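Researcher: Last one for today. Full complex below.
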Amino acid sequence: MLTEFLYLYRGGDSPTSPAEGQQVMQQWMAWMKDLGEKGYLKAVGSPLEKTGKLVSGKTKAVSDGPFAEAKDLIGGYTLVQAKDIDDAVAASLGCPIFLAGGAVEVRPILQMNM
Amino acid sequence: MDPALQAAAEAQPNELDPQLFRHESGRMVIALTRLFGTHNLALAEDVVQDAFCRAIEVWKFRGVPANPSAWLMATAKHRALDLLRRERTARTYAPELTRWLESEWTLVPSIQEVFGPHAIQDDELRMMFSCCHPRLPEPVQVALILNILCGFSVGEVAAAFLTTRAAMEKRIARGKKTLAASKRLFELASAAADLEGRLPAVHRALYLLFNEGYHGASEQTAVRTELCREAMRLTALLLAHPLAATPATHALGALMCLNAARLPTRLDAAGNLKPLAEQDRARWDAALVREGQRLLNLGATGTQLAEYHVEAAIAFLHASAPSNAATDWPAIIALYDTLLSLRPSASPSPVVALNRAIAIAQHQGPERGLEEIAAIADPARLRTYPFYFAALGELELSSGRPALARRHLQAAVSLARNAAERHFLKHRLAVCEAGRHPS
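Model: Here's the assembly. Have a good evening.
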């Protein structure tokens, strides 16, 4: 029985030149392809804009983003399936975000066992 | 499977031209600079950087679309349009376009126009001439070309020239300040005389760029091949323009092709320099030799003999010789004589004179070569050139004076400018020492 996990990509430096950017992009594409071939990938997911609004509190106050320090900002997400959390963590280790000093947050999707 | 997943699976990350982003970045910065004016170069760079960051983020997940260049251009166009609408009156833009950018009626067509493929190619050429401003020293011109036209970051240009990032930053900033002063890109059409006047500087900058890749300081083979390739790409742009495609431009293109044909064998499998005599001629690029010959023939018109003609002719004799022994050395020596006579007599190039002496040694023996080296007019300028001492060492060794040869080769090793040269010269020294103490 496979469990679903969400990869949340946090932080990571932007590339400093077009050539580096192309390299980074190709590393990501190769990694995503690898996740797919190994049967982990459920949905590629999407990148997120760096801006947005935060709606909060009982007053539903609306304020401008960003909502975190740049190093903690969520830049995108991917849905994967894995045997367990250790397997999901192991599959994340090839993510190119680590080369840019970023992080992957691995969160199990909450399941109801009936 | 969701469609994005399908796209990601089908995308072929390895089939993308590895220089695509770099080239597109250069072209987009130039198109936007034409629009914004050279005084807003930094703004153009920001817009392009932004377009790239967005494309990279999306393509990471979705894969690269079938025509990435068109997507990048469209993104940059949108950002430019946004910016011009928002800041129409907050800044001044390119003087010749200002009135077209002021009205919504002409704004969109003007942007379409500068992003058209022919317009961009013309603007690349204009930017090349802008970068070769007579007030800028040659190293600044070359750095600007790499940064703006070739899409190298300041850090990458610094790495190619083995300078610090800070020093390169200063050099490029100085160049951009000069560009900003004129506000607009160099005019190609309306002032043909100006084009002719600045063309030699453009030739020289591209020649230096090519040589930096061919002989230069950077130890990374990939970087060096890149520099040669960029110089050839930009020379091809000159050749495609009727006013810039002069005989000297053809000769420069020929020289680059003929030298580039030998690039695959200049280094052995371990990345060590290999002398011409020992290179595997079967691996020279025959198509480039043919292209070089074609350009050399096309350039053999008019009344002005440029140094590039002579250097290309020498390169052609090397590239077309079946072996080192079967090389037409008398013709090469005669061409070196011509080359020396083209330089103003006050400053004959000692490196050219050295190469001539080496050719004479190949033809008439090492002792004659040594005599010619001894006769070089301004040897002081060669005292820091490792291959001056290397040549002396090799010729002394061939003449049966290994002790003297050893001293020269040691001097050569101590002057080596990078690891590849050091390794090569140490190897020659080892050969010399092995011959002296046979074991």
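Chain A touches chain B through 27 residues (CB under 8 Å). The CA atoms of residues 73 and 109 of chain A lie 20 Å apart.
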